[in-house]
Amino acid sequence: MITPTVSNIEFTLKTKAMNKLFYICIMVVMLAACGSKKNNEAANNTEANNNKTTTNDQVNTGQSQTTVVAFTNIKPETFKQLMGSKVGIVLDVRTKAEVDKGKLPKATNIDFYKPDFDDQVAKLDKNKPVYVYCAVGGRSGKAMQKMKAAGFKEVYNLEGGFGAWQQLGYTIEK
After folding, report:
1. Locate the Rhodanese domain: which residues (predicted)?
2. Residues 161, 118, 98, 109, Cα dihedral to 10°
């Protein structure tokens, strides 16, 4: 058995202190790495804002002077207001089976899943606002990005899609 001596106790205490210091250094490095990730995310968010694809629900309703970003996801209330205030194209990118259950008034259907989707969209007037929607907002969000790349000036994506529109009791056609 080892008899504790002053030098053994000092060595043990120094070793424990060194271990603590080592773990503290590791944690500092890890935290610094997390901070870099947050900075990268902030830079990516800034880049996304520069591309003007955002969620924005401000609209000019005549009561106040505000604007809606040209390529944006918007809530059904704002989508409806914009459709009423700016003449444009209402684009339904759902399948025929989905459209047969109902659609927004005056909607044109171009199925996002069809191989000729890009060709059909290219025939639309790029200078008119486009109000695009699908069942829940995913396909129409992708369609909005494709339309932006194709040179469209304004595209508004309906957040929550046809389901959100219908849930609010807004007018649909069959």
Report:
1. 84-174
2. 90
